[in-house]
Amino acid sequence: MTRIYDEDLTGGMATRAIHAGQRPDPVSGAIMTPLYLTSTYVQESIGVNKGYEYARGKNPTRQALERNVATLEGGTHGFAFSSGMGCLDSIMKLFRAGDHIVCGENVYGGTFRLFDRILRHFGLSFTYVDTDDPQRVADAMTPSTRALLVETPTNPLMRLTDLAAMSDIAKRHQALLIVDNTFATPIFQRPLETGADIVWHSSTKYLNGHSDMIGGIAVTSNEELATRLQFILNAAGAVPGPFDAWLCLRGTKTLAIRMKAHDANGREVAGWLATRLGHERVLYAGLESHPQHALAARQMSGFGGMISIELGTRERVKTMLDRVRLFSLAESLGGVESLISHPASMTHASVEADRRAELGITEGLVRLSVGVEDAADLLGDLEQALHGL
Ligand code: PLP
Fold it and tell me: Is pTM, for the whole model, over 0.85?
């Protein structure tokens, strides 16, 4: 019997998530990709090897993950890193002193911190713009702009960026479009198919899905970029260990079913919160009251489990966060368990207070990563936590 492998894998996303990039182990037939715990590979003779020389450059467990996520994103090459930030730092090594980057103003705080506190001192310059409005992005492009970086939906304000419009602007200026797809995942949004050159993730989040590793991954279909990214990956060496790659690969097998469950719970919790607190206080792209709901419905096939709410004051936030029992107060997102956080003092503490205020990351903002528990239990927990507020 001939089994289906990558070269003829044409199925839907759930099928790809389970099978892409993986073959039974050639030694034993083990259906699960083995953990290749090795730093080096024995060579038959000088220059004669099985395609593996040293594990910083390539590791078969890591490669299975890279091929799996590349297939899910509709790309051809994947590059796994030891964290999302390590991944972005390596992507940024594609550029050189004097290059200018246009970046969405409401990106993850750590992205801003990497650019503002480190890469700026290496001669890269950055302009931060509100990417809701393509005209503002076009106005920020200069002759030395080499890349346009966006995150959509954004963390934590759930604002959307029109990826097709960004791709047009980037192409007109011969700049790369680089998209952080951590929140939507390839299950709901496929940036490469809308013209992005590189899509990347904190694989710590939904790709892994079980809050048990830290990782990052970048995908491209551009051969030249792929060659340069592989060179950077090997030369700079921010690679994950095989066990973290293996944990992530185990996570991606259930990505499609998990995202459906996050989406169903996200819609239910957001709808309930909108009734409880008022639509204007709930930020979720799946709500018709979201100012960019039409774009979300066009660009995404689901809205996932990330929701932010505005409670008005830090005191109310503290009361709610002290009361939750099923939601856990913690940084991070995208795991099967529900988390809750206070962006101003947690994920976005590295953004100056004035800047946070300008962006709308207020002291009263709470971010929820809705997990895949029973929706009724989540609503019960939120009801008791919000009682009297
Ligand atoms: N991008 C987004 C949207 C994130 O939320 C995060 C982390 O929270 C990162 C990137 C950074 O990834 P990591 O924490 O894996 O370094």
Answer: yes
